């Protein structure tokens, strides 16, 4: 399915993400019948291609088709984008529009060093281009405390080292990953959380008296690194657990509108960070108009403040304008955004050369990143960050606490403020949760992109190993970057030697790349961040298919993240998701009352005489019973709705309803508030002239609550508790019949002393009310008396249906052998097995097993005797057909009473 999505590399203005739906297993109306896996997304230029080659399904995996995530997510599980920031650098690498050769691995000739150079350089270039803007965003650009921000090189080195460690595990055979095209990278989606952790640690140490107002405490930078390391360690353990317990689909538990809100909130953060990185002075706070005016109005010491952020804003406007024009002209240039970003630096120096402007002057005005050497005497204080006497821009500072061990310190964590770390735990946990959302999507997407099967559990464990190694070096979380990996694979990169070459070049950038960072204009980093942030922001808020409440939730999450931080935004998202669920699902699924009806058409399984049935069928009979069926959870939030509804039902039939049945069969749980509310309802109903309220528990062990509700109800004379609806109807029917003629209660069962023959005659007359005594007497001459001992099997399920039994004394049990607990008792006065006999087919089989529960006396009519009866006395035999029809009518009417359970019908 074609999708008009776009990316940073396509001529569109938004970043859209896609998921996939297995087309071969969709349910009715196009809905998926199971949880589908994700697939990669492509740019609009690719999906609109008329000559796009069909996708070849991966062997052993379902055939996927891509659909836009936030336009079609109603048909797919909730998923996050593969890489919130970085997928934009690989959309041009799809088969239909790639400028780089895509060669199938099995048909590719032996690789030489020469044909591996392009992918190696591409992967290294992507690492460098991403390290500067995002590395600059790890730490606040300014702080109200005495601690100045560290040089950008610190963040760049953190980014690169985490990337190197991730590539070492994921791109080689060490970690156990099934992809030799993997490109590990620092998890850039976590940049806002790293920023929050650094800021929280600094403020907590200052607030705890860790330093004076004039100097920065030595504990700040080591504590930040340990907090980063702890976050990475928890992330590593989480990946190990997910892989061990096969929980890779955890991302499906996040509602889509919450994800949209988080994406837009991150977009605002990225835009804010881009402005701060561009200006280099001041911190942009959205909490008040004064702080906003101060940031945008401040000119700085050199009077160039406004130009520092106007330049990247102008470049972003120009880029987006070009993309929009190309889109209107229906032209595609997927490489435009990355080439635009890469061209900023050379164009910047060409401009300086044309106008004869010295680099030193531009650096003084703040258009370039500040120096990163360790000489603090020649630098402005805004560019230094002391770490207990250790130069933070040095190589050793990145390896804290490894550096402390090398210096033979007695306590390598002496400079760590554990109280400050404790205050960052909520942010760290939020970061971990956010980290777990990407890998379960990236892995299947990568599998499809490179046409290679993968083991999700092994890949999760591999990510656990890569993050464990990163944690040991006090570094940031990392993962397999889907976009960089696809870019590397599509350009021909593959194999462990090439991966080691990427690691080597990235390590050189880590060790000797300080001069490169000093030479990069702030505008380049700012332009990339602002552009990506705007795309993310508009992607979240412009998603379609949401209700007004969900749209409000998206904006609430964005505002919470912007004003109060990432953790507050995630917390707001969880709360709003719960509220949205209750509001949307409440009317359909959470209403405590499933339905109600008078018992006019309901019958118990008890066999009634004709006179008793006439009493029940009168206008003041069963119609005086109202049955209310409950469902779901009864708790404090819906107990008022429940009690008011019951009162309204009784009020509608004021003065006529005398009996009430409350069926709790479908109730899952009852909290204490609802239990006591039920007791109060009973007391209220007693004042409304109700004679009896029958509570149907639906379970042998009573109500599903901790309160002893059954015992409490027994203390009220108006209430009675029974196991099922049949018993409740039988009880209330007896009360109605006995009010007219008490002698009819036991008449239908003929449980009176007397001769068996008298009992049998009376029973058959009750079953065949149109027959006279002489006809019944003739009929009974074909029956044979049989005595049964307790436990004796009358017939087995699957046996031949060759007789019926009229029970004169005792009780039998009918049950299904293949279904545990499905039983029905057959008592004196009942006839059983008549249907199989009347059918008359020799192949007719018993559907139940019948066993005597006590010593019994039954009268049998065999198939041979019935055949003789039909031949000699057809007018008498017709009454057996009448008996069969009456029993079937009785049973079908009885079964229609049951909403949940199904008892076996004796045959």
TrEMBL record:
Compartments in which it is found: Membrane
UniProt domain STAS: residue ranges: 625-689
Region (Disordered): 1-64
Transmembrane segments: 120-139, 220-242, 254-275, 305-323, 335-355
Domain of life: Eukaryota
Keywords in alphabetical order: Membrane, Transmembrane, Transmembrane helix
GO CC terms: membrane
Chain ranges of the Cyclic nucleotide-binding domain: 772-869
PANTHER family, alphabetized: AFR304WP, SULFATE TRANSPORTER YBAR-RELATED
Name of the protein this chain belongs to: Sulfate transporter
Source species: Triparma laevis f. inornata
């Amino acid at each position: 399915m074609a999708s008009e999505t776009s990316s940073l590399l396509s001529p569109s203005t938004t970043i859209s993400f896609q998921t996939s739906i297995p087309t071969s297993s969709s349910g009715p109306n196009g809905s998926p019948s199971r949880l589908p896996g994700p697939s990669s997304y492509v740019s609009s230029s690719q999906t609109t291609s008329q000559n796009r080659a069909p996708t070849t399904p991966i062997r052993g995996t379902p055939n996927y088709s891509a659909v836009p995530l936030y336009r079609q997510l109603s048909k797919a599980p909730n998923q996050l984008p593969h890489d919130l920031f970085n997928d934009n650098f690989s959309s041009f690498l799809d088969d239909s529009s790639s400028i780089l050769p895509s060669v199938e691995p099995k048909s590719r000739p032996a690789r030489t060093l020469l044909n591996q150079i392009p992918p190696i350089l591409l992967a290294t270039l992507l690492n460098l281009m991403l390290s500067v803007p995002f590395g600059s965003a790890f730490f606040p650009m300014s702080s109200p405390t005495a601690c100045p921000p560290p040089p950008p090189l610190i963040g760049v080195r953190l980014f690169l080292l985490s990337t190197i460690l991730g590539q070492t595990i994921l791109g080689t055979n060490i970690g156990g990953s099934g992809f030799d095209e993997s490109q590990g990278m620092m998890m850039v989606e976590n940049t806002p959380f790293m920023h929050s952790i650094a800021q929280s640690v600094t403020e907590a140490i200052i607030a705890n008296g860790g330093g004076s107002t004039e100097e920065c405490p030595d504990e700040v930078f080591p504590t930040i690194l340990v907090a980063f390391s702890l976050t990475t360690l928890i992330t590593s353990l989480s990946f190990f657990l997910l892989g061990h317990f096969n929980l890779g689909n955890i991302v499906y538990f996040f509602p889509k509108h919450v994800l949209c809100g988080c994406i837009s909130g991150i977009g605002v953060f990225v835009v804010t960070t881009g402005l701060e990185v561009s200006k280099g002075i001041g911190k942009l706070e959205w909490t008040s108009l004064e702080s906003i005016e101060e940031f945008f109005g401040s000119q700085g010491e050199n009077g160039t403040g406004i130009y520092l952020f106007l330049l990247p804003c102008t470049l972003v406007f120009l880029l987006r304008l070009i993309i929009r024009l190309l889109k209107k002209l229906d032209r595609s240039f997927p490489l435009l955004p990355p080439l635009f970003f890469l061209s900023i630096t050379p164009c910047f120096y060409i401009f300086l050369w044309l106008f004869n402007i010295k680099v030193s002057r531009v650096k003084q005005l703040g258009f370039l990143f500040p120096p990163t050497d360790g000489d603090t005497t020649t630098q402005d204080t805004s560019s230094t960050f002391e770490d207990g006497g250790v130069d933070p821009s040095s190589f050793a500072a990145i390896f804290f606490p490894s550096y402390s061990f090398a210096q033979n310190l007695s306590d390598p964590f002496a400079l760590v403020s554990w109280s400050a770390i404790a205050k960052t735990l909520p942010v760290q946990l939020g970061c971990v949760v956010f980290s777990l959302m990407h890998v379960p999507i990236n892995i299947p997407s990568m599998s499809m992109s490179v046409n290679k099967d993968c083991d999700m559990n092994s890949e999760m464990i591999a990510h656990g190993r890569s993050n464990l190694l990163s944690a040991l070096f006090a570094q940031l979380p990392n993962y397999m970057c889907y976009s960089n990996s696809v870019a590397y694979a599509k350009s021909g990169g593959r194999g462990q030697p090439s991966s080691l070459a990427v690691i080597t070049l990235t390590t050189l950038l880590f060790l000797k790349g300080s001069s490169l960072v000093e030479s990069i204009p702030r505008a380049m980093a700012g332009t990339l961040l602002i552009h990506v942030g705007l795309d993310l922001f508009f992607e979240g808020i412009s998603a379609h298919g949401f209700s007004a409440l969900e749209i409000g939730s998206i904006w609430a999450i964005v505002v919470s993240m912007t004003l109060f931080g990432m953790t507050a935004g995630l917390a707001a998202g969880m709360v709003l998701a719960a509220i949205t669920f209750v509001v949307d699902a409440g009317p359909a699924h959470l209403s405590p009352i499933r339905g109600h009806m008078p018992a006019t058409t309901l019958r118990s399984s008890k066999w009634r005489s004709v006179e008793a049935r006439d009493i029940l069928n009168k206008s003041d009979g069963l119609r005086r019973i109202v049955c209310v069926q409950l469902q779901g959870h009864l708790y404090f939030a819906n107990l008022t709705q429940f009690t008011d509804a019951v009162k309204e039902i009784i009020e509608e039939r004021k003065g006529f309803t005398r009996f009430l049945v409350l069926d709790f069969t479908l109730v899952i749980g009852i909290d204490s508030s609802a239990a006591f509310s039920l007791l109060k309802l009973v007391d209220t109903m007693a004042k409304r002239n109700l004679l009896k309220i029958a509570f149907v528990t639906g379970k042998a062990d009573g109500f599903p609550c901790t309160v002893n509700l059954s015992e409490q109800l027994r203390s009220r004379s108006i209430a009675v508790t029974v196991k099922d609806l049949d018993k409740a109807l039988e009880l209330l029917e007896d009360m109605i019949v006995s009010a007219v003629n008490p002698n009819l209660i036991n008449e239908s069962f003929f449980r009176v002393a007397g001769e068996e023959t008298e009992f049998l005659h009376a029973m058959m007359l009750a079953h065949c009310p149109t027959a006279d005594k002489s006809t019944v007497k003739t009929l009974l001459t074909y029956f044979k008396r049989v005595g049964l001992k307790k436990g004796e099997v009358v017939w087995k399920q699957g046996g031949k249906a060759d007789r019926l039994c009229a029970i004169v004394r005792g009780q039998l049990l009918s049950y299904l052998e293949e279904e545990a607990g499905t039983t029905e008792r057959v008592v004196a006065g009942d006839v059983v097995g008549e249907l199989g006999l009347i059918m008359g087919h020799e192949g007719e089989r018993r559907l139940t097993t019948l066993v005597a529960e006590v010593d019994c006396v039954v009268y049998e009519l065999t198939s041979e005797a019935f055949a003789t009866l039909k031949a000699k006395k057809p007018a008498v035999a017709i009454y057996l057909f009448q008996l069969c029809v009456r029993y079937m009518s009785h049973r079908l009417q009885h079964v229609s009473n049951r909403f949940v359970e199904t008892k076996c019908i004796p045959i």
